[in-house]
């Protein structure tokens, strides 16, 4: 079974940057990622620019990217207004987002979990009538920065409500990157009793360095084949302080393939995109492979 990588670097990766990233840099990053073999790229968010000023140029980014027929270009939307903006910009898939922790959800979207799901009702209807696939994120599925550990039953309850609403895919988020393989197994043991594994993606941040181990546990043990990842390990959530980026796409691809997984992504091309975008924003990629390929280490450009 082919492993699907959803590249979230342009959205999750860049949303957390304090200094404004020029639109040109974002467009070049998405264009480079379009040539890596990833089947889906989360390009930006149609959220309130007051809440996430970094992604206020979502329309312009969508307008200027070069689209590959082999890639689905998606966006985060928090409400009906977000969906209208996403449709007008030509997003090809939308993602709503809520959480398994009330406190995190309140901080992130200023609503309870139930209120946020009510807001998604018109989003789901609008996406359905526009023929747009819909993803539903469940953040803080393992640990919450405010409430601590979160039980699998809380995640299952939110996941089932999102499925009732009509999401095609669930993305289960380890928002602060603190889950361990046993915790991933505990959650999947509960969740997959009711949910088809083909509809489950894992969104693993890598704060404590466990994301690759978690992905392997989910893939080998449960047959999860969709993973979110961010080139160069960029990212974090502005409303989850201290959390670092997603698992680096290039590292995840390398490890999955080395473990026998069928994954049609060119990790060298991803590392190149990561090196270019991080150079443009004055950072270094947080990935093993970008280090291996880095010219700074005397390696030829990947
Ligand atoms: P609010 O302030 O409670 O609601 O925000 P509001 O309806 O009063 O809106 C406030 C202002 O925003 C108004 O403008 C609205 O018009 C405007 P004003 O009248 O003050 O000029 N507004 C919008 N503008 C543009 N596009 C929109 C939109 N909606 C309202 N769609 C709201 C509620 C949900 C809007 C806000 O809290 C928000 O935008 N939050 C987004 C937070 C966010 O993006 N967080 C990061 C992404 S989630 C994440 O990273 C986790 C994830 O990666 C998974 C994981 O790691 O676990 C997905
Ligand atoms: Mg995230």
In short:
With 302 residues, the chain is an alpha/beta fold. The chain is 43% helix and 16% strand.
Question: Would you kindly provide a written description of the structure presented here, covering whatever features stand out?
Answer:
The protein has 12 helices and 10 strands. With 302 residues, the chain is α/β, with parallel strands linked by helices. The protein has an 8-stranded parallel β-barrel, surrounded by 9 helices. A two-stranded antiparallel ribbon has the order 6-7. Helix 8 (181-191) links the parallel strand 8 and strand 9 (200-204). Helix 2 (23-34) crosses helix 3, helix 4 (80-89) runs parallel beside helix 6 and helix 6 runs parallel beside helix 7 (152-165). The longest helix is centred in the middle third of the chain and has 18 residues, at 113-130. It binds 3-hydroxy-3-methylglutaryl-coenzyme A and magnesium ion (MG). Magnesium ion is lined by residues 12, 173, 175, 203, 205, 237.
